[in-house]
Design brief:
Largest sheet: 7 strands, parallel
Helix content: 40-55%
Number of helices: 15
Structural class: alpha/beta
Bound molecules: adenine, zinc ion
Shape: globular
Distance between the termini: 6 Å
Strand content: 5-15%
């Protein structure tokens, strides 16, 4: 079996705060005298958000944030990522870490430094939260645009799409698209095909985070495949949040069969307990994808993120090399 860690890939669907190591969560909680938020199962998205928000509370000082960013890069590299593009919701940190602009600047500085030291690349997605409203989303898009030449490469939209549909967020994504950012909202997770369609048509999505419920509409799948919109799929997250009943029933193979370009991501490894490498392994072991399919997923991830072309081309050559090495064992 070929070593999945040796397959060059990009990690595109990864929430920075949700990627904290459990040991770091425990240490920072202890240092700051905060109870460690228990990470349990999630009966609802609201419970998940409560845990996520509690984890954010342990980031009290700039140093805590720098440590988080550094470790997220290190963990991505361990999984074979050569491009790391986590998303940050700056509004999560206003009360403890200061102005959004300053938080973004720290994350970019530390992320780029950590990546450079490890010979990989780092780009940042700034994400708005649906429940904070349209005006906040527009402000987040302006912030993202301000950093478009300084390492922010994409603009996202998180939280519950069933309660907050895509259409009203159009003006924020207009701004992001005009700034040359990759528009990458969550859709097709807690709402069906209409949400994915609106993400593409109204929010200019070049990537859809999750997107999996598009499988309910074959016409939409055809359109997504034709347009080459990438779905950043997170297998374990979908099971843990009840989007699909079991890993075995995940629609990733159907999406691939329909020609939809898919990447794999871990979403929130702190909360779902699966690393990027685990996700590739599940795709191989549980869903039966062969190495050619896994290599194609890695290629899609490298092409769909904000990686500079030299890094991308080198990594794509590495994918070809991985596929042509004989399988060991
Ligand atoms: N924020 C963090 N993880 C998320 C998910 N899976 N869906 C929507 N928003 C999120
Ligand atoms: Zn996500």
């Amino acid at each position: 079996m070929r070593d999945l860690a040796a397959l060059p890939k990009a990690h595109l669907h990864l929430h920075l705060e949700g990627a904290m190591r459990p040991s770091t969560l425990a240490e920072l909680a202890d240092r700051h005298g905060i109870a460690v938020p228990p990470v349990t199962g999630f009966g609802s998205f609201a419970v998940f958000v409560g845990t996520y928000t509690a984890a954010c509370q342990v980031l009290r000082r700039e140093d805590d944030l720098r440590r988080l960013v550094r470790e997220v890069v290190e963990d991505a590299v361990l999984a074979g990522a050569v491009w790391v593009e986590p998303s940050l919701g700056p509004a999560n940190h206003r009360d403890r870490l200061g102005a959004d602009h300053d938080v973004v600047a720290v994350v970019l500085e530390e992320g780029r430094r950590a990546a450079r030291e490890r010979g990989v690349g780092f780009g940042l997605m700034i994400a708005a939260a649906r429940d904070r409203g349209v005006a906040e989303a527009v402000a987040a898009a302006r912030l993202a645009a301000d950093f478009a030449d300084a390492g922010v490469v994409s603009f996202g939209l998180d939280a519950d799409e069933a309660a907050f549909p895509p259409e009203p967020f159009g003006p924020a994504f207009d701004l992001a698209a005009q700034a040359g950012l990759i528009c990458a909202p969550h859709a097709g997770e807690f709402a069906g095909p209409a949400s994915v369609r609106a993400a593409i048509e109204v929010l200019h999505a070049r990537r859809v985070l999750h997107g999996v419920r598009a499988v309910e509409d074959p016409d939409l799948l055809r359109e997504v495949a034709e347009r080459g919109v990438c779905f950043d799929v997170c297998l374990t997250s979908n099971v843990k949040l009840g989007v699909v009943p079991t890993l075995e029933q995940h629609p990733l193979p159907a999406l691939l069969a329909a020609g939809v370009p898919c990447s794999l991501g871990a979403d929130d490894p702190l909360l779902f307990g699966a690393s990027l490498l685990d996700e590739y392994d599940h795709a191989r072991t549980t869903l039966g994808l062969d190495d050619a399919q896994l290599a194609e997923i890695a290629r899609v991830s490298l092409r769909s993120g904000g990686a500079p072309s030299a890094l991308r081309e080198r990594a794509l050559a590495g994918v070809d090399g991985w596929l042509t090495t004989p399988r060991a064992g």
